[in-house]
Amino acid sequence: MSAHTTATLAFDVVSAAAIPQAVREKVLALFHASYRAADDTYLEQSFSKIHYLAIATTADGTLAGFGLGDLRIVDLPRLPQQRLALMGICCIAERFRRHGLFPELERRALLAGGIDWLPRVLSCGRMAHPVSLRPMLDNPTRVPKPGTTPSGWQQDVGAAVAALYGVKEFDRATFVCRGRGTPMNCVIDVDVDPEEWKVFAPVDRTRGDSLLSMFWVPDAPEGW
After folding, report:
1. What whole-number distance in Å separates Cα of residue 150 and Cα of residue 210?
2. Which of 39, 133, 31, 37 is nearest to 90 (CA)?
3. How far is CA 53 from CA 58, 91, 113, in A?
């Protein structure tokens, strides 16, 4: 992250289940500023499913950004006691974008529980726009990929992870998490190559769909 941004912001991490009211109001305001049709129910569900909320504020108390996430140990199909990073929604105020604040907030949220990342972590997130997927494009273990149907094992794991997010309808072949019928169009003014949209082809953003994406750090288990 930009050294200038780091020096001018204060960071904090709170339990998503007990967010102070003043913080909650600022988070909701930034959420609405970041989405053309912000669904408060979606955000509230995220608070109930993901453990930590990381925030960054300016000296005058303005919210620069927030991010939800947690690292936990769970039993997944063929992966007992697996370290799983659940990354949630992250919103950055317009003047603080493109300074690396997104990964810094997620990092702080994921580390809040004190769980060691070793030896291997399955990192997951739900995305509604290709820009959110860019940090993992170069990871060869990521699922799904354009033109490739996930394996049976990958589909089983994907369905289990989607359930942890509270997803009611999950398409195992495309990894689409069906929305609640409310549009979730984030306000992002970034050029996106048509190739980046391919994996999002089955995502209907007008009904609030998102794409579940998973990747391994530092590498995938045998047979993945």
Report:
1. 17
2. 31
3. 17, 11, 11
- Give the model's pLDDT for residue 207: 86
Tokens 């509270």 correspond to 166
Q: What angle is formed at CA 113 by the lines to CA 157 and CA 170, rounded to 5 degrees? A: 25
d(CA 161, CA 176): 12
| DSSP code for 145 | B
3-class SS shares of the chain: helix, strand, coil, % to 5: 35, 30, 40
Distances (CA, A) of 87 to 95, 149, 175: 23, 23, 16
* Distances from the Cα of 6 to the Cα of 53, 64, 97, angstroms: 18, 11, 13
Nearest to 66 by CA among 87, 45, 41, 38: 87
**What are the structural domains of the chain?**
3-217 (3.40.630.30)
CA distance 160 to 162: 5
Q: Which parts of the chain sit beneath pLDDT 70? A: 1-7, 129-135, 137, 183-193
In this prediction, residue 203 carries a pLDDT of 87
Q: What is this structure's pTM? A: 0.89
